[in-house]
Design brief:
This protein is mainly alpha-helical. It has one domain. The radius of gyration is 18 Å and the shape is elongated. The mean pLDDT is 82.
């Protein structure tokens, strides 16, 4: 019987606490539109940090 908290953890010989992403996380990681949006957001954040230091 697997506890609800342990659903996303893999059981193998190397580690008992390896996280496995769920369906939603896998979908977001492979979605090119979402990746582009993340890219833009991260670049805007970097521009803010760099502009504060100069």
């Amino acid at each position: 019987m697997v506890k609800h908290e342990e659903v996303n953890f893999a059981r193998n010989d190397q580690s008992n606490t390896t996280m496995i992403p769920g369906r939603f996380a896998r979908a977001m990681r492979t979605n090119l539109i979402w990746q582009f949006i993340r890219f833009v957001i991260i670049n805007l954040k970097m521009l803010v940090v760099v502009s504060k230091s100069h």
